[in-house]
Specification:
Layout: H1 2-18, H2 23-71, H3 75-89, E1 113-122, E2 135-144, E3 151-155, E4 164-166, E5 171-175, E6 178-181, E7 189-191, E8 196-198, E9 202-204, E10 208-210, E11 215-216, E12 220-221, H4 248-251, E13 252-255, E14 258-262, E15 266-270, E16 273-276, E17 279-282, E18 285-288, E19 292-295, E20 298-303, E21 306-309, E22 314-317, E23 320-327, E24 330-331, E25 333-336, E26 342-346, E27 356-360, E28 368-372, E29 377-393, E30 398-399, E31 404-413, E32 416-420, E33 437-438
Parallel strand pairs: 3-6, 3-31, 4-7, 4-31, 5-8, 5-32, 6-9, 7-10, 8-11, 9-12, 15-18, 16-19, 17-20, 18-21, 19-22, 20-23, 21-25, 22-26, 23-27, 25-28, 26-29, 27-29, 28-29, 29-30, 29-31
Antiparallel strand pairs: 1-2, 2-33, 13-16, 14-15, 23-24
Helix pairs in contact: 2-3
Length: 440
């Protein structure tokens, strides 16, 4: 009997050892806490990152709101109130008052910067299974409230390569103002060949390419915020009736040469000394052969064709705005391409086109080319504003004057240019490009 019992027990134990029923239930029970912990971590980490993004948005908004108040000169109380209000509107509460100057970071002690901080205590739920204890999420933001230095050369294209370029032997001197490039391209600002630039700054939304033997003494800041277009709402469409051959004498008077009007070339002055009156010059305006022209104060609409000066022309005027406009595919451009051509034109100091000496209709197609070249001396006092145009200074052209500004879709210098910023007469203000900027 004992032997039979031992044999039966041995068979039972062998069957028990081979039996796998219920094993997975045991294993699942053993690893369930770990699975729950991992799921909990995945869920909660995602939630924490979402929380942190929301908190960062609130801190950013609070710092910017405080910086705006600081920039407007409204004082510390207004800065603090605006910061708290902005954070609340974004669903969070600041952990402390916005501070000026910041208490930490790269702008510590900077009286033109505002810092805001948001904190949130987090209590783990599922991830607490793994022993994770409560912790605090903290974010901060700093906004710089100082006015941006004035830019008097602004390239507006948002995406082009070499949106603002100095090529060949270009030599550009900026006095009292700098350059701004709004393109986000990696080579938005370029200097090649033996070009040279001097000035207080170049701000570039994208990147820069300064190569070969180019010489630059203007500090370049890449990845900068884009500069606002100060004339984005200006209208530049033609008004009045077109000058015709029958009315030409009313608008162009003088002697020593001859004048003409044709549908193909618009108004043309050939030599002599003449005075022009404001009006609508359809199909273009041109001068040739030693013309000496005075432009009376007012607005000159060049409707189609080109504003073209050549062959030793001298042209001057005070209180003048040249509007390049048109329709369809025929929008006027500017073409100054002859040696010894002298331009001395000043913008009006009041009225619709205050400070604007050349304005292009924003309905003009992109890429229309405007050229100043051939050794001409151009003194445009005021702003040349071509929001969809390309402007090129070539072949030794000299741009200068008490106040010269260029705002264009793209800008290329291949000649010499001296640009000054004595623009008080035109009411320009640094606030055109003044705004708080998030810096941390």
């Amino acid at each position: 009997m004992a032997f039979h019992f031992r044999t039966s027990l041995e068979r039972f134990l062998r069957r028990f050892a081979r039996d796998e029923r219920g094993v997975y239930a045991i294993l699942f029970a053993l690893i369930l806490p770990m699975l729950l912990g991992m799921v909990g971590i995945a869920v909660e980490v995602g939630y924490w990152y979402s929380q942190k993004r929301d908190m960062q948005s609130a801190a950013d908004a609070a710092a910017m709101a405080g910086a705006y108040e600081l920039l407007e000169g409204n004082g510390t109380a207004a800065m603090v109130a605006a910061g708290h209000d902005s954070a609340t509107r974004n669903g969070h509460t600041l952990s402390r008052d916005p501070e000026n100057p910041p208490w930490t970071g790269a702008y510590t002690g900077d009286s033109t910067a505002v810092m805001a901080e948001v904190e949130s205590n987090q209590a783990p739920i599922f991830s607490g299974v793994l022993g994770l204890s409560a912790f605090t999420i903290s974010v901060r933001a700093t906004a710089h409230a100082a006015p941006l230095s004035d830019a008097c050369v602004i390239a507006l294209s948002p995406t082009s390569a070499s949106t603002l370029g100095l090529l060949g032997t270009a030599d550009v001197n900026m006095s009292g103002c700098g350059m701004a490039v709004n393109s986000n391209d990696s080579t938005a600002f370029s200097m090649v060949g033996s070009s040279a630039l001097s000035g207080p700054f170049v701000r570039v939304t994208g990147g820069s390419d300064i190569s070969n033997n180019a010489s630059n003494s203007a500090p370049v800041t890449n990845n900068s915020p884009s500069t606002l277009d100060p004339y984005s709402t200006i209208s530049a469409t033609a008004s009045g009736s077109c000058i015709t051959s029958g009315t030409l004498g009313t608008y162009v008077s003088g002697s020593g040469g001859n004048t003409s009007y044709t549908a193909a070339q618009g108004v043309k002055i050939n030599g002599g000394t003449y005075t022009m009156q404001p009006g609508r010059y359809c199909n273009g305006f041109s001068t040739v052969s030693d013309a000496n022209v005075t432009m009376a104060p007012g607005t000159y609409y060049i409707d189609g064709g080109s504003f073209s000066l050549s062959a030793q022309t001298q042209i001057s005027g005070t209180g003048v705005t040249i509007v390049l406009t048109g329709s369809g595919s025929d929008y006027a451009t500017m073409d100054i391409q002859s040696a010894n051509t002298v331009v001395d034109i000043s913008a009006p100091t009041s009225g619709t086109y205050q400070g604007l000496v050349v304005v292009q209709d924003r309905n003009a197609p992109e890429g229309n080319n405007n050229v100043i070249t051939g050794g001409s001396s151009t003194n445009f006092n005021g702003t040349m504003y071509l929001p969809n145009g390309d402007i090129s200074y070539r072949g030794g052209a000299v741009a200068g004057g008490g106040c010269t500004r260029i705002i264009s879709y793209t800008i290329q210098f291949t000649g010499n240019a001296d640009l000054n910023n004595d623009c008080n007469a035109y009411g320009y203000s640094n606030q055109l490009s003044s705004r708080p900027v998030l810096v941390e």
